[in-house]
Amino acid sequence: MLNATISSFSYPDSKTVLKEVSFKLEKGEHLAILGESGCGKSTLLHLLYGLLQLEEGEIIWNGKPLLGPASNLVPGESFMKLVAQEFNIMPFTSVAENVAEYLNRVNPEKDNQRVNELLDALELKDFRNTKVKLLSGGQKQRVALAKALAKTPDVLLLDEPFSNIDTFKKRNLRRKLFKYLKESNCTIITATHDAEEALQFSDKLLVLKEGGVKAYGKTKDVYKNSNTPYLAGFFGDFSVLPNAVIGISNSLETKIVFAHQLVISNEKTPLKVIIKNSYFKGANYLIEASYKDSIVYFNSPSILKKETVYLRYINDYES
Ligand SMILES: Nc1ncnc2c1ncn2[C@@H]1O[C@H](COP(=O)(O)OP(=O)(O)OP(=O)(O)O)[C@@H](O)[C@H]1O
């Protein structure tokens, strides 16, 4: 089990980067750390891996405190692998040699089989003998991933693992990769600003803002309870509407409502809106409408004219 408590962390001569960040992970669980650029995601991974010294707080793996670079001759814990944004790959050797670097080389046939498996999984078979310096950014990122997986670690830290990989390849690749890691019972921590990735693959979600925790818990619970514009902004287009207008209570309190939670009603409702714009999104249209002084977003299967319609709130989480 990984148990991290970071009371405070600052780089020398700089302001506090992380403050009161803590989480617990069981073996085989996947935590996604979600947050905007500069909120401290990479710093958190570097602290966990042991590249940075944690003075205020503790990181415990299976009951044993991790002591950080001040106590380790070679920075980095041996049971963990970090796939960082600046890839840990050797540019002047081939893809296959890079992937094989951490294998123990006792049984060449077995090693070769493992390399082939990984090249296949990361769609790198065609580049087996290509020198890494000749590859694109996305291909290099896939080599770094294959290399980290060659001997599957107990804990894998992934810093924006798909940031350089095009959408076309990314969807298939990350499904394959996370399935493989789950089957290997590997504990995973990914830093990402891609909420879709966090929602699809993680068990737990930690949302950071300026180094502090904005939300932490089971991924589905964090999503369902996104009760601030900052949190909801990661997950999609939303409106902030009075409870009374969406019919959930008579209070003056407001609620965050995602676009897919509003539908056109054939009957009159308190939510009478005027359509302003329709944005094509492929599977449907995102409709921008005005309600009194505020903007309301909802989905529609077809483009809508600039007319007045009534909307109804559907709470899809309770079904
Ligand atoms: N070596 C360093 N020395 C001083 N400040 C640093 C150092 N590395 C990062 N920082 C600062 O720490 C803060 C957090 O940076 P970090 O790289 O952890 O954020 P991030 O969430 O991973 O960002 P991104 O998504 O852009 O990679 C930023 O304000 C950054 O400028």
TrEMBL record:
Key words of the record: ATP-binding, Nucleotide-binding, Transport
Keyword Transit peptide: no
All copies of domain ABC transporter, residue ranges: 1-235
Species name: Patiriisocius hiemis
Protein name (Swiss-Prot/TrEMBL): ABC transporter ATP-binding protein
InterPro entries in UniProt: AAA+_ATPase, ABC_SmlMolc_Importer, ABC_transporter-like_ATP-bd, ABC_transporter-like_CS, P-loop_NTPase
Source organism, top-level taxon: Bacteria
GO molecular function: ATP binding
Organismal lineage: Bacteria, Pseudomonadati, Bacteroidota, Flavobacteriia, Flavobacteriales
Gene3D superfamilies: P-loop containing nucleotide triphosphate hydrolases
Pfam short name (any one): ABC_tran
